[in-house]
Amino acid sequence: MYTVVAYQVASAINLKASKQGLQWQLLFQDSDELYYKSSNESFIYLFQYGMVSFFNMNHTEIERALEQIKPFCVNYFSEKLSESVEVIIKTNTLRVQFDSVVLPKIDEEMIRLVMLNTSQSVALQSFSEITEELLIETNEHTLYLEEKGKLDISGHKLKRFIGKVLNIKNKITENLYIFDAPDITWEKEQLNKLNQDLKQSFDLKDRYRLIHDRIEIIKENLELFKDIMDHKESSRLEWIIIILIVIEVLDLFVEKMLT
Questions:
Q1: Which of 9, 82, 141, 229 is deepest in the core (most CB within 10 A)?
Q2: CA dist., res. 65 & res. 52, Å (int)
Q3: C-alpha angle with apex 181: 50 to 196, nearest 5 degrees?
Q4: Residue 99's closest CA among 115, 122, 83, 116?
Q5: DSSP output for 52-71
Q6: Which residues, including other chains, have CB under 8 Å from residue 43's CB and lie 6 or more apart?
Q7: Which residue stretches of the chain are H helix?
């Protein structure tokens, strides 16, 4: 029995620098991923969005590998989200179970798909926690609006909040291709089936939709907050203009009275 374990180690990983600095055997690369063979039956998978996945490596080997990867990380995490899945090798069998995957052999492309989906599951866990916190914070402002009839957030803080939400949405869109299949699955039906079964087992699509729906709810609330704030600012300007007009009229009136 073998183990795939995926970690969120950083906010991002510089893949260009990683490729130049890491000495493992490179099997696959693109702008978002580096897939290495570190020894005869061990693999390491790096993702630009801060994920690293390992196959058939013990704790000491993983820690040693992370130390090599650390210099290429942006905002390296001391506490890391992680997830693991057992891989069982059984001749002529391909099956995805609740907590394990059965493969007919140690095939680098099959292993890569298991590592990819495990990594995306951890990434979804991270984004789920972030969006849940944002939704809770949004609901606090909504509740205050309901109870007090006004907002308890300044224009500057609201703009920062909107920027944070948009940044998270962009990261999810750029880094998680839950609904896309890797190129390797297009040519081999067996790999395509494995990929689809893994997505279903990790419940990736439903979890992604939940995160997307949360972001849309947050966006709708923030747009409403912005409209209220814009209206408030517009009303303030109108009152300033009215006051200036009144002052001007009074000034003319006093001037006429004196003459």
A1: 9
A2: 10
A3: 100
A4: 83
A5: EEEES--HHHHHHHHHHHGG
A6: 27, 35, 36, 37, 54, 55, 56, 108, 111, 112, 115
A7: 15-21, 59-69, 108-148, 155-175, 184-187, 189-202, 204-258
The torsion defined by the Cα of 7, 218, 164 and 151, in degrees rounded to 10, comes to -140
Q: Six-digit token pair at 185?
A: 């699955």
Residue the block writes with tokens 């390797």: 184
Distance, CA of 235 to chain centre: 39
Structure tokens at 218: 């947050």
Q: Which of 169, 184, 148, 180 is nearest to 222 (CA)?
A: 169
Q: Please give the pLDDT value at position 221.
A: 86
Residue 162 structure tokens:
């909107």
> What's the CA angle centered on 112, arms 108 and 117, to 5 degrees?
160
Q: Can you give the pTM of this predicted structure?
A: 0.82
- Paired with 45 in beta bridges are 35, 53
Choose the weakest-confidence range: 171-175, 224-228, 253-257.
Answer: 253-257
Domains with residue ranges and CATH for the chain: 2-105 (3.30.310), 119-233 (1.20.58)
Are residues 118 and 202 in contact, defined by beta-carbon separation less than 8 angstroms?
yes
pLDDT at 120: 92
Rounded mean pLDDT, 33-39: 95
Give the Cα separation of 85 and 194 in Å (integer).
14
| Structure tokens given for 215 | 């972001």
